[in-house]
Write a structure and sequence with these properties.
Blueprint (H helix, E strand, L loop, with lengths): L25 E4 L2 H4 L5 E7 L6 H12 L10 E3 L2 E4 L4 H8 E3 L6 H4 L13 E5 L4 E6 L5 H12 L6 H4 L6 H11 L2 H12 L10 E3 L5 E8 L1 H11 L5 H15 L7 E7 L15 E7 L4 H14 L1 H12 L9 E3 L3 E9 L14 E5 L7 E9 L2 E9 L5 H13 L7
Parallel strand pairs: 5-6, 10-13, 13-15
Antiparallel strand pairs: 1-4, 2-7, 2-14, 3-4, 6-7, 8-12, 9-16, 10-11, 15-16
Helix pairs in contact: 2-3, 2-5, 10-13
């Protein structure tokens, strides 16, 4: 998902779909950076909505998937390959918009939405009575694309401009060049940091690694509380880091054992040259230690971002992916918290909300069975919090208590 900067949410007038005779069938291997998210889906629920007519949403989806193979939305999946068939887009759009079963709604139901999607489709839209949901294959893209697809399918304002100007070239070379090509000192600092990195590994009890049951609890933080956290963070540490520390403390106070190291998801688009973006996956989890306090962690995080350590981590991960070992059979018996901040969801403001109390729920797969991922996003001045976890390992009541602490008194959780 997307962290560290707010996605641009500009929209343009509706673009006509690319004519089938202009784009033949095209296909290719799914890139390694997308395969890192294989098996992962992002499920989103938006409520309360004045739900558009199905025909209206089908037309909007048809426009999205008709923007060409480079815009990614119309791709289908066949094993480790993708396929874009312009001649089948009408039928594909019909398949991609379906009724929303009531058993897949709310905190308890949203994680089950992934179980009813067609495995070949890049995303699907589900329409209910007072809400709509999307389920997106993470191989297609990250949180940035998820927001743009949601806006394009449901806002009624046409296809977001990012689809018309999609650049599907591998963004990694451009990011590496912009980060290190003119700033060789950053590379030296990065190498020195890696040589001196002596963070201790986990040595405590473990539990079996295979995942159990994906679950979700959500809540909202009112505008005044959110402003208070932002004011506390200003000039000291990034608000995302403050929320990461608050999440760690909330879990601890709720009786959940927590590791000293968690992660913040970093949007690597920050390293691209000006004017360049990508709809593809371009995020990475960056480790954060709470061991030495928030000020030390803040200084380290700032330095890591400056020297491009998250970018280097993705590069290293892609280089070793081909011979990476299988998933671990054992994982720590302590929670590994991750904070994923999607920023201000301005692209979703124009959706046909039925009231001012707009809510966005997001269900994602945590990184590992012991992972607990809190995804935050600001909509209409309120911070929406979605906490995904494995309820076969962590008690739902304890995670719910931690979420309540986080949304009601985040400042009370901070040092």
């Amino acid at each position: 998902m997307v962290i560290a900067r707010e996605p641009r949410a500009t929209t343009s007038p509706r673009h006509e779909p690319v004519e089938p005779d202009r784009v033949a069938v095209s296909s290719g291997r799914i890139p390694g950076r997308d395969l890192l998210s294989e098996g992962v889906r992002i499920s989103v629920e938006l409520a309360p909505l004045i739900v558009p007519e199905r025909e209206t949403v089908v037309r909007a989806v048809r426009a999205l998937i008709g923007m060409g193979a480079a815009a990614r939305a119309g791709r289908t999946f066949e094993g480790n390959r993708w396929r874009y068939d312009a001649g089948r887009l009408d039928a594909q759009a019909e398949r991609m918009v379906q009724p929303l079963p009531t058993e897949t709604t709310g905190d308890a139901g949203l994680p089950r939405l992934r179980e009813i999607v067609a495995p070949d489709l890049p995303f699907m839209v589900f329409l209910g009575e007072d809400r709509a949901s999307l389920c997106i294959d993470h191989r297609l893209g990250d949180g940035f694309l998820s927001v743009m697809l949601t806006a394009g399918a449901l806002s009624g304002r046409g296809t977001p401009a990012v689809f018309a100007s999609a650049d599907d070239r591998n963004p990694l070379p451009a990011a590496l060049s912009a980060t290190y090509g003119r700033h060789a000192s950053r590379l030296g600092a990065l190498l020195r940091d890696r040589w001196t990195d002596d963070r201790p590994g986990y040595a405590g009890p473990t539990v079996p690694g295979p995942p159990g049951r994906l679950d979700l609890v959500t809540g909202t933080m009112d505008a005044a509380t959110f402003r208070a956290v932002a004011d506390w963070s200003r000039g000291r540490v990034p608000p995302t880091l403050a929320m990461m520390f608050a999440l760690h403390e909330a879990l601890r106070r709720s009786g959940i054992p927590v590791m000293d190291e968690g992660a913040i998801l970093v949007d690597l688009r920050r390293y691209l040259p000006s004017g360049r973006s990508t709809l593809a996956n371009f995020v990475v989890g960056h480790p954060i230690s709470v061991r030495d306090g928030i000020d030390v962690a803040g200084a380290r995080f700032h330095r890591d971002l400056h020297v491009g350590r998250p970018l280097a981590a993705l590069t290293s991960g892609l280089a070793t992916h081909a011979w990476r070992r299988n998933a671990p059979t054992e994982v720590p018996a302590a929670a590994s918290p991750t904070l994923s901040d999607m920023g201000f969801l301005r692209a979703l403001e124009p959706l046909p909300w039925a009231s001012d109390d707009a809510v966005v729920r997001v269900s994602v797969d945590p990184a590992g069975r012991n992972g607990i991922t809190a995804l935050t996003a600001v909509l209409r001045r309120r911070l929406n919090i979605s906490v995904s976890f494995d309820s076969s390992l962590w008690e739902r009541d304890a995670v719910s208590a931690a979420c309540d602490l986080l949304r009601h008194d985040p400042k009370g959780l901070l040092p």
